[in-house]
Amino acid sequence: MKPISKRNSLEEIDRNVRASIPVGVDARLAEAYFRANRVEHSNAVRERIVYGIVRGIRGSWLLVEVSAWIRIHYDPHSRVTRIDVSRVNTSF
Question: What is the pTM of this model?
């Protein structure tokens, strides 16, 4: 598994998440990966999405915090079907 942290850029986080949690694996791997990397996360069972956020990633500046919002979608059999990683800006 490739690590992720706030020292990474959005592109690095995207690449490392996709390499560590490939489509088709058990969705529990996503939660284990987030725990191992100390990523805030939650499993929305009804929606079948594991959400994660890495706050204050590289690219943040003076009054804006940049975070990576990660969504791991899975099917009724708990197999990962899609991974979305996007940028979220929060101003102070």
Answer: 0.93
Q: How many CB atoms lie within 10 A of CB 9?
A: 14
> Per-domain residue ranges for the chain?
10-91
Average per-residue pLDDT for the chain = 96
- Euclidean distance between CA atoms 17 and 14, whole angstroms: 5
Handedness of CA 43, 52, 1, 77 (dihedral sign): positive
3-state per-residue secondary structure call for the chain: CCCCCCCCCHHHHHHHHHHHCCCCCECHHHHHHHHHCCCEEEEECCCCEEEEEECCCCCCECCEEEEEEEEEEECCCCEEEEEEEEEEEEEC
